[in-house]
Write a structure and sequence with these properties.
Elements: H1 10-17, E1 21-27, H2 31-44, E2 50-56, H3 63-71, E3 77-81, H4 88-97, E4 103-106, H5 118-127, E5 132-136, H6 149-162, E6 178-181, H7 182-188, H8 199-206, E7 213-217, H9 232-247, H10 253-276, H11 284-307, H12 315-328, H13 330-347, H14 350-373
Parallel strand pairs: 1-2, 1-4, 2-3, 5-7
Antiparallel strand pairs: 4-6, 5-6
Helix pairs in contact: 2-3, 10-11, 10-14, 11-13, 12-14, 13-14
């Protein structure tokens, strides 16, 4: 299917320049879906001043180029390409901020959301006192389509967990298909965490006032092109979103996770230190040095896998990151060993000396690694 922009008369061009409705569509390797998506959207929004903002996370299949080629023919189509950043929630946030439309819809490019619901969503917002209209799979008339039992169970579990932080009694807080008044987004935007892949849940949990909403049923359709983005990273980001809404007002979630891994590293440190202390030829300072190196290495890989998963280092960047972690934290390691050795000479208690040294090293490690080791591309 090839998308063909219709000829636009002056009145329609004015609508295109001042759209009433903006569709924000995050993309990652969705080239094959762009033209079919626009065909379907254009067929149901006839007479509506609309624009589509594709927020592309630097797809390698040419998605951004495909969108720009269409945008040359149709001013209602725009591409916002992000370099070195990924994430569905932040993509949606940036897409909404890039538009001036009074009504904004968020939906996926994979054709699984039913575009035929868009006119009804818009009409509901115009006529009823709602802030938000959600396309729901869990109200009467909606469905999960061809999902297997396992995926349906995972979705149900995520929905139940989301109610821990959600401020609204909503059937489908995990929906990625909704339309809102611009004002409800602007009220919440400075409180949004940007974690995870479900901007609706973030919006509902972050709004400073109760959001007036309604849910309209739709049946989730199978993907036509490309591959699903659901993986362990998505699950992890969902967990980070829940954690941010639970404790983020007290301490940054990334710092809390780094500290937790630091505690695990402390256990590794003490275990290695105790083992090394059993080697007759090693002094305490040498044993502490070995334990520090092992703990530092384990902390680096755990933080790369979990704390900085969205900035995860791979390939040669992983090697360079590990080397930089060693070099940058060498000052902390010197302080670690020095303080531990001093405490040991005073009290001769190996575990207390080990803890004192590890605390000094961990504080330094967090401060410098956030700036240098896992810096953005």
């Amino acid at each position: 299917m090839r998308y063909k922009a219709r000829s636009i008369d002056p009145a329609a061009l004015a609508l295109a320049q001042a759209p009433e409705l903006a569709l924000v569509v995050p993309t990652l390797n969705e080239r094959g879906n762009i033209e079919p998506f626009l065909e379907l959207v254009g067929s149901v929004l006839d007479g509506v001043g609309w624009e589509v903002i594709f927020v592309d996370d630097d797809s390698r299949d040419g998605t951004a180029a495909a969108v720009r080629a269409i945008a040359q023919r149709d001013p209602r189509v725009r591409c916002l390409q992000r370099i070195g950043r990924r994430g569905l929630s932040t993509a949606c946030i940036e897409g909404v901020l890039a538009s001036a439309a009074p009504f904004v819809a968020v939906m996926d490019a994979d054709l699984q959301h039913d575009e035929r619901l868009l006119p009804r969503m818009l009409e509901t917002l115009k006529r009823e006192p709602y802030d938000l209209v959600v396309g729901s799979r869990y109200v009467a008339g909606g469905g999960l389509g061809t999902w297997d039992k396992g995926r349906a169970q995972i979705s149900g579990l995520a929905t139940r967990l989301s109610r821990i932080v959600c401020k609204a009694e909503i059937a489908d807080p995990m929906s990625g298909f909704f339309m809102m008044r611009r004002g409800v987004f602007e009220d919440a935007m400075r409180h949004l965490s940007g974690h995870g892949f479900k901007i609706l849940l973030d919006l509902l949990a972050s709004s400073p006032r109760p959001v007036r909403f309604t849910e309209l049923p739709y049946d989730f359709r199978p993907r036509r092109h490309g591959e699903s983005k659901l993986d362990t990273l998505v699950a992890w980001e969902f967990g980070m979103l829940l954690a941010d809404k639970l404790v983020g007002h007290l301490v940054p979630v990334r710092f809390a996770l780094f500290a937790f891994i630091g505690l695990l590293g402390l256990g590794v440190h003490l275990l290695v230190l105790r083992t090394a202390m059993g080697v007759p030829t090693l002094s305490f300072a040498a044993a502490q040095g070995v334990a520090t190196l092992v703990a530092m290495t384990s902390n680096f890989f755990l933080n790369n896998l979990f704390t900085y998963r969205d900035q995860r280092l791979k390939g040669w960047r992983l090697v360079r990151g590990l080397v930089s972690f060693y070099l940058i934290c060498s000052v902390g390691a010197v302080g670690n060993v020095g303080i531990a050795a001093y405490v040991f000479t005073v009290d001769n208690v190996w575990w207390l000396a080990g803890i004192a040294g590890a605390i000094v090293g961990s504080v330094w490690n967090y401060a410098v690694s956030a700036v240098f080791t896992w810096r953005g591309k």
